Amino acid sequence: MPSKEEVLKALSTxxxxxxxxxxxxxxxxxxxxxxxxxxxxxxVLTTPACPLKGIMQLEAEEAVKKVPGVKDVKIKMTxxxxxxxxxxxxxxxxxxxxxxxxxxxxxxxxSTVAANLAVSLALDGAKVGLMDADVYGPNQPQMMGVxxxxxxxxxxxxxxxPVGHGVxxxxxxxxxxxxxxxxxxxxxxxGAIKQFLTDVVWGELDYLVVDLPPxxxxxxxxxxQSVPLSGAVIVTTPQSIAVSDVRKxxxxxxxxxxxxxxxxxxxxxxxxxxxxxxSEIFSHGGAKDLxxxxxxxxxxxxxxxxxxxxxxxxxxxxxxxxxxxxxxxxFRDLARKVxxxxxxxxxxxRPLEIKMVKA
Length: 359
What we know:
The protein is an alpha/beta fold. It folds into two domains: 76 residues, 2-Layer Sandwich (GMP Synthetase, Chain A, domain 3), CATH 3.30.300; 264 residues, P-loop containing nucleotide triphosphate hydrolases (Rossmann fold), CATH 3.40.50. It is 35% helix and 19% strand. It is built from twelve helices and 15 strands. A hairpin with a 4-residue loop joins strand 1 and strand 2. Helix 4 packs across helix 12.
């Protein structure tokens, strides 16, 4: 009969492809048992949204089957998302990672990307919250199908957020009348951001996705100075003018000591709904070039498809409304890449101190 030591030795030949260490050393093999030639163990990933889950499971199975005497291998794929100690110190132990989604200008579909990233992570089994920090144009209530929700406070004066498509959502849109403008100065915006972080019953979250307003103003600075972010995702469209504006957002995050998880190109090639052929409506290559010049991953592109806008307006993000569509598949892939980048940063980067910016 094979021994546990022999099985572990075989599994130590399997490397975690993103962290470049073997899975035994990383503690990803747990509850290993060997009975009558049957090997069972838990394979604990760093995120349920791991983009290489299937490949990693197959590699582990093949490695164990090479051990003499092994008749069968049963692997339970599970996940344990690592938490940032700095985030826990400020927000409490519930929220493990905070991901900012930003852009340098409006009109690039940043809120659409944030909503679809959030629901995609939830579809993969993660516990997810979506914080709509775009106080000037809070669109997430409509996009997530929770428009009209009226928040109440508990005995501790904390708000319980609604759940849309498996994601907890909080937005300024719940606290204001429709069509009412937000005419606030910096201190009021800072107070709102802190309240959304600390006075909402988020519960246990693997990821809190934060939809930032466009630009590089008070809200972005308040968020970055209120909590140590796990990283930022930059959204742009292919046009050179959009990429030019996004460079300012990249520079802001760097100045505030926020790591870049990657760049997403939204509204890339157009897919004709009739003939299904693709066409490049805008110039291309700018987003990938921006990522390379800033040492950040180019996470990928989402095709331009009218159904993306329609599904958001109807309150169901495309990743849920049409899971087999090209945009939905792109968002699912992008979410897994973002989760992988968060895992890499948690494992390899030393926590950075929150950097204050003088007025």
